[in-house]
Amino acid sequence: MTPPARRADAQRNRERLLTAAAAALDERGVNASLDDIAKVAGVGNATLYRHFSSREKLIEAVYDQRILRLCESAGEIGAARPPGAALVAWLREVVAHITESRLLSEAFMAGYDGPADTEPPQVVAWHHAIYEAAEPLLRAAQRAGAIRHDLDPAELLALTTAVARAGQPSQAGHFLDVLLDGVVPRAVDAPPP
């Protein structure tokens, strides 16, 4: 059974809350004030809590929105560009997502009260969604000979994530360029006939 559609004003309030929360969380991370988020969104605290029962649910919704957009962009980019260029453009979006969401990620993890040695289930789901979005781009680039054949989506995304988290956020683009030079196929990497 599908949930009933939200009223238009309730949907607008939710979107304004998500926009205000994203900005506050990106700027202040775990220190972002829910009161300030509600105020910037132009709603009261009761409205905020009607949409998001806790700080953790609000943070999760902001991150969900970003992951959804990142995954959607994989298909859009893949349809609009040649395979190698599409993969590179999307990896740049992945790097931008990671560098721009550092404080948001920390805020999400600060609210996790599960075992320290396991990822929260929602993080596992986000990773799965990103791997699924990456796979068609990677496979198309491999078929076109634009990227090494011995990489799978998990490996490529692990390398991309490491690049995005290494050093300062301003270095991430350069680090990605270096990584991409390493994943371009050479004659020795070509698949056997």
UniProtKB/TrEMBL annotation:
PROSITE patterns: HTH_TETR_2 (PS50977). The keyword Magnesium does not apply. The keyword Nucleus does not apply. GO terms for molecular function: DNA-binding transcription factor activity; transcription cis-regulatory region binding. The lineage of its organism: Bacteria, Bacillati, Actinomycetota, Actinomycetes, Mycobacteriales. Keywords: DNA-binding, Transcription, Transcription regulation. Residues 33-52 bind DNA. PANTHER family: HTH-TYPE TRANSCRIPTIONAL REGULATOR BETI (PTHR30055:SF234), HTH-TYPE TRANSCRIPTIONAL REGULATOR RUTR (PTHR30055). InterPro entries: Homeodomain-like_sf, HTH-type_TetR-like_transc_reg, HTH_TetR, Tet_transcr_reg_TetR-rel_C_sf, TetR_SbtR-like_C. Residues 11-70 form the HTH tetR-type domain. This is TetR/AcrR family transcriptional regulator. It comes from the Bacteria. It holds the Pfam family TetR_C_43. It comes from Nocardia bovistercoris.
